[in-house]
Amino acid sequence: MILKSPPGLEQAFQKLHELVYYPLIHKEKFVHLNLDPPKGILLHGPPGVGKSMLVQMVAKQLDLKVIYIYSSKIQSPHLGETEKNLKEKFDLAEQISSDKNIPTILFIDEIDAIAPSRDDSSTHETRIISQLLTLMDGIKKRKNVVVVGATNRPNSIDSALRRPGRLEREVAIELPNRIARLGILDFYLCKMNMKTDFLDKNELVSSTTGYVGADLLALCREAGMHALNRTFHSKSKLDNLELLENVDTSQHQIILNLDDFRYALNVVVPAAKREHVLDLEPVKWSDVGGLEKIQKEVEKAIEWPLKYREKMMSLGARPPVGILLYGPPGCSKTTVAKIIATEYTNFVASDNKNNASDLGGTASFFAVSSAMIFSPYVGDSEMFIRGIFTKARVVAPSVIFFDELDTITGSRDETSTDEVQKRVLSTLLNEMDGISTLPSSNTKHYHTDVNQNTKIDTESNVNKSVLVVGATNRPDKIDSALLRRGRFDKLLYLPCPDYNARKQILKTKLRNIPSTLDQNCSTEIDLDVLAEKTKNFSGADISNLCMEAALIALRRNKSLTAVVDMNDFISALDVVDASITKEQLDFYEKIKDNF
């Protein structure tokens, strides 16, 4: 028999095929050997990886009947109704397999929703689990039935289901590696009936690390729609039907190129990153002023490993594992994180043409705050930390940004640090140590997803990096273990802007405000004077000053021709003060000297 497996799922298909084929098609061999064939299989992997499709294709090739059990369709709020619905499905499988002599797969999708761990279950859920266990035990009497359960959270289902005689065999579906993604893309592109002669598939595959089959299908669809819009020179996005009515598909007149996929990559978020996407406003280095020194350090930490990693490794120059941004409030720490997300990663949609030639030259960006981490349930916070690092490794090169790091980890030297913070700190230390010990050879490497109990093939990522960026106003509250080499080994101090930096920030802010800057008039804005008068102002303070000056100008002249002049800034200085005191600045300077 020639097996035709889905693209990118060859190994999982082969294993599932064997586990279903022998018990249902050659059950007499088990009888002869006096062996009990496996009656239950647990299929697990990330969402969208192809679990349901795998079952369908195995059933189709073996000519098996599939009976589907969906949580949303059998669950009922009425007492005993869900248990009854479950039993009816099992009885139907027995009827088809026995009366009609048709081998049958009983497929339970999202089985974790039907049978969650009884440690966290209500009385109603416990009754459902008990019924399912009873029905599973009865499978031994049903000679031509195999139960297949699918989940993306195998550790969340009740442990009794994974015992021998129930879901005793497991098939893990890994995230597709580079070769698998190429096969999946080829499969979908061939079906699109578009010209792909000018499409560099190798470059495209490099930019889709962490994408599963469903993500790649959505990516191809989005790129195809963009190609249609581009072909017809549409100024506004047309709907699918209107586009398709005008397409002469027989002539292959639609050309699909990398620009279409560049657009699609900014729209389609892969499953590995979907849970940690935040809406950050795009910010570029050119949008801010006074950060030239910080820009050089960030470029060395992020851009150099992306462009020159092999050269750095050959010289023994290992990229930093972590960067800690610290300094007074309002001095652009979070802004630098937004710039990282915009300039160096594929996290924020951007039409920056400078990066258009290199799809593979960007990193993935994950933003984490304390509100996302802390949970009232024991172990959830640590699981979240492990999960974010797992996903970051899978889609490496990547950047994980922890805002207000001191509130997340605390310091073990502080008596006020609670137990949750201590456990989160311990988990973070372990995960960062895992980054620093990633192998640098090109050997095949596996990482186990602690949330999914799934081995993830990261052979294409062992030469790539995960960079952790933390931001804090209180570096003295950060545990000293985090500041050791191999963890946050790059400490960047963002001080209050000096005279030249304040002048540059003012000039940058005034680019977007109608003003008398450089107009050679009596009320011309004098940046030198303003820079002198804003000593100890943070970047945020200067932004507030510009906003206040604009409001004063608006009160003075409510017409569309209103402009901000020097007098408006002088008035604004009477309202806006520096938010950082000299004592605070001395405090940060002392910390910098100690670091």
UniProtKB/TrEMBL annotation:
Domain AAA+ ATPase residues, every copy: 37-177, 319-498
Q: Name one GO molecular function term.
A: ATP hydrolysis activity
Q: Which InterPro entries match?
A: AAA+_ATPase (IPR003593), AAA_ATPase_domain (IPR050168), AAA_lid_3 (IPR041569), ATPase_AAA_core (IPR003959), ATPase_AAA_CS (IPR003960), P-loop_NTPase (IPR027417)
Keywords from the UniProt entry? ATP-binding, Coiled coil, Nucleotide-binding
Pfam families, alphabetically? AAA, AAA_lid_3
Record-linked SUPFAM superfamilies: P-loop containing nucleoside triphosphate hydrolases
User: Superkingdom of the source?
Assistant: Eukaryota
> What family, per the record?
Belongs to the AAA ATPase family.
- Protein's recorded name: AAA+ ATPase domain-containing protein
Recorded source organism is Furculomyces boomerangus
